[in-house]
Amino acid sequence: MKVPAARGPVSTALFNALAERPGTNEDALEALQRTLAGHLPATLDIIGDDDLQLTLFCLYELHYSGLEGVSDDWEWAPELVRVRQLLEKPFEAALREAAAEAAGDLELPAQSRVTSDEVADILFGLAAQDSGPSLSRYVAKQASLGQLKEFLIHKSIYQLKEADPHTFAIPRLSGRAKAALVEIQADEYGGGRPERMHSALFARTMRGLGMDDGYGSYVDAVPAVSLAAVNLMSLFGLNRRLRGAITGHLAIYEMTSSQPNRLYGRGFRRHGFDTDVTHYFDEHVEADAVHEQIAGRDLAGGLVEAEPHLLSDVLFGATAVMAVDGRLSAHILQSWENGVSSLRAEVLDAA
């Protein structure tokens, strides 16, 4: 991915440090740490902080495809891992607060051990009570062609590397949960056929609308909450202690995506696009109807049966994604209903 434009002092300091190889720029690293230490205490909403979310996004990107022109030696540089941890702590705290609000009056089983079916029932209950704004219905019935493109831009930040954050969890699991995750991921990666990988299908959708399908091409255009929705997956996937959260995240994703994808496909067909564009959404209608059972009972449920103390983390992962995705959907819909773009105003002004 190309190095994006900085959004404030912290991301500027990060990019200055990454411009050189590790071990050659101690001054730049010290400047990054001082800048972060000065900025963090003043941040009232880390989920909506453009500078900090971009910084965290790029730190995580070192563990994915890397950044163009940046040495791969930075991936595990202790100084950057420390910076990442300093950002992760308040970010996780904010996610837990948002997740608790999304959970509402959720009641957990009284017994210390729960079955996989009981875990699945709790998750399906959460999915059913999700009352967030329906972006999918708006796309199906009202979205203009320009708004469809904006929708794809927001989704591209994750969908072009779909499945990768969850794959980090495979070596952290065992037995039934691991087998279930591998089964789901095999489908996400196209069953061994690169042209059927879900990220490749999404790229084809973007090309069908004349858009740039390059990985990370639209990072500069999206607001902090779009980056936060991806950063929380990386936070969960890269930290073994949060293996319960990444399984809960995937489970609720699978449980809440089949019907929205049906509506998304309908919105694109309303504008005259055919299967070449809608294949990504159509594929998820069918695949996620199967995956939701595997993710709920065998992945999340199997993990909790093996490690009962992880139930709260499974539910944290599920409710955190509901909270952040709900916030993102509310931002997009409010922007469109007010007749303005949901993308960053600075980028639009520059364009």
The arrangement of helices and strands along the chain is HHHHHHHHHHHHHHHH
CATH architecture classification name of the largest domain: Up-down Bundle
Span between N and C termini?
21 Å
Output the CATH homologous superfamily of the largest domain.
Heme oxygenase-like
User: Largest sheet, if any?
Assistant: none
Question: What gyration radius follows from the Cα positions, in whole Å?
Answer: 20 Å
Tell me the name of the CATH class of the largest domain.
Answer: Mainly Alpha
Beta-strand proportion: under 5%
The number of E-state strands comes to: 0
Looking at CATH, which topology of the largest domain would you report?
A: Heme Oxygenase, Chain A
Bulk shape? globular
**Helix share bin:** 55-70%
Query: Please, how many domains?
Result: 2
Mean pLDDT figure: 93
Low-confidence stretches: none
Structural class: mainly alpha
What is the number of helical segments per DSSP (H or I, 4+ residues)? 16
